[in-house]
Each structure stands twice: as structure tokens, then as C-alpha cells.
Design goal:
Strand 6 and strand 7 form a beta hairpin. This protein is α+β, with helices and mostly antiparallel strands. The protein has 4 helices and 9 strands.
Length: 254
């Protein structure tokens, strides 16, 4: 299938979305995600892409060399389940491992810019993200799941970190590519921002962007961040309301 066939003349994509529409967002926080053992946990779904994040900390580091005297340190481990995609990878091995490690560093550095690390000197915050389904935009799901897990753990941040992607389908810029669209081979832009601002914490560009197209891709990804941020806020508020209601019911039952 050629790139031009991914968008109809009427502006609809293969999954029925318009060019500026992200996939549906579903998320759950805390015990709703089925991970009570961690200090914070969350599940984030973007269409059929799904990521689960755990946060442990702030806590004492296992080794003294892993801490600094004036701030906390963050570590991140990103994993992808073997069953995460229906497409069999062409090659596995050291190259795939290096790519996963590189993306783990992206997440780590993104949150080092957002978390108020100076409030937890000589401590460590550990983030684990498991990609359960990879049907396009798995890094978006991973970053957003980590944000919700950090919020669930009560770790203060300068704002919600929100990620979204955009890309070219033929000559048309679109938001939030699914797996089939990513395989078309066009340019892609991944952005992570602080919600409500235009401050960029992470920007990664894949493939050559056609001349004059980057501003459109940048703006589309920012628009997607705003849309996703609203869903994440609603998820956190709903979780907080349920927690408050449960505590109130417990007090009345005494």
C-alpha cells in the first residue's frame, strides 16, 4: 500500500479517524491498575496500545554511589512484553536491547526535568514501564503511564508530563500514528511537554522531515498533548474522588 492510500480524499484514515484526531484514551491509577505493591502504578491505553507503569520511592538507594547529596536520582527500566505485537520482529538481539536502553534513558531524562528532585536528597525514585500491547505510539503510552504512576505515588512534579506523536502520511501531517501508519515509513515526531505549557521536555524525530512540514508536525503533537492531558487529569481526579469517598465511608463506619 502506498503512503497516499493511508488517507482518503475525504480526509479519513484507515481506522476512521480524521488527520487531527488521536485514538481513544483509557487509563487507570493505583489499585485500579492491579499493582498494589508499588508506591504508585498506572495503566495507560491509547487505542490498542497499552503500557503499565510502576513507581517505587522515594526510597533509600541500595548503593551509596547511586545518590547525590542535594537531590533524588531517577532510574527507569522499559520493557516490552513478547506478546505486545502481532507482527514478528525482523531481528532480535543486541540492537533491540540497545534501542530499549536508549528509550529508557529518554524517559529517565524527561522526568528528571519534571520531578522536584531537590525535595528528596540522597534518595532514589525507580520507574518501571512494561509495554503490554504495541500497536503504534508505545513510547507515548509509556511516558504517560509513568506520569500517572508518579502522580499516584505522590511525587511532586512541575506539572503533568504528557506525550503525543505526529507524522507524515504521504504529504499529509497527521496526529498519533497507529502501528500500520508507522510502518508507512514517513517522518515521525515524538513530543513530551508539561501540560498547559509549550515547554518541551523530550523531542525525537524519526526519518527525514519534508521541507516546511516540521512546524505542522510540531503543532499537531502539541495539540495531541493538550487533548491527552485532559483525559489524564480526569483520570486522576476520578481516582482522588474515589479515594476520598472511601476514606469518608470508613470514618463513618467506625
Amino acid at each position: 500500500m502506498s503512503n497516499l492510500e493511508y488517507v482518503s480524499p475525504e480526509g479519513f484514515r484507515l481506522d476512521g479517524r480524521r488527520m487531527h484526531e488521536p485514538r481513544c484514551v483509557h487509563c487507570s491509577v493505583g489499585s485500579d491498575g492491579g499493582c498494589e505493591a508499588a508506591d504508585g502504578c498506572a495503566v495507560f491505553e491509547l487505542g490498542n496500545t497499552k503500557a503499565l507503569a510502576y513507581v517505587y520511592g522515594p526510597m533509600e538507594a541500595r548503593q551509596r554511589g547511586q545518590t547525590t547529596s542535594d537531590r533524588a536520582t531517577i532510574t527507569c527500566t522499559l520493557m516490552t512484553a513478547a506478546f505486545a505485537t502481532t507482527v514478528r520482529p525482523r531481528r532480535m538481539g543486541r540492537g533491540a536491547d540497545r534501542q530499549t536502553q536508549e528509550r529508557s534513558v529518554w524517559i529517565q531524562q524527561t522526568f528528571e526535568s519534571a520531578v522536584l528532585l531537590d525535595q528528596y536528597p540522597r534518595s532514589q525514585i525507580r520507574i518501571f514501564v512494561q509495554v503490554l500491547q504495541a500497536e503504534g505510539g508505545f513510547m507515548v503510552a509509556a511516558i504517560n503511564a509513568a506520569t500517572l504512576a508518579l502522580a499516584d505515588a505522590g511525587i511532586p512534579m512541575r506539572g503533568l508530563v504528557v506525550a503525543c506523536s505526529s507524522g507524515m502520511l504521504g504529504r499529509r501531517p497527521v496526529i498519533d500514528l497507529n502501528r500500520e501508519e508507522e510502518r508507512a515509513g514517513g517522518a515521525q515526531v515524538l513530543l513530551a511537554t508539561l501540560a498547559g505549557t509549550k515547554q518541551i521536555l523530550l523531542m525525537e524525530v524519526e526519518s527525514k522531515v519534508p521541507e516546511g512540514s516540521f512546524p505542522k508536525l510540531h503543532d499537531l503533537a502539541l495539540t495531541g498533548c493538550d487533548i491527552i492531558a485532559e483525559e489524564m487529569r480526569a483520570c486522576l481526579l476520578e481516582h482522588a474522588a474515589r479515594g476520598f469517598s472511601a476514606r469518608l465511608s470508613h470514618r463513618k463506619g467506625r
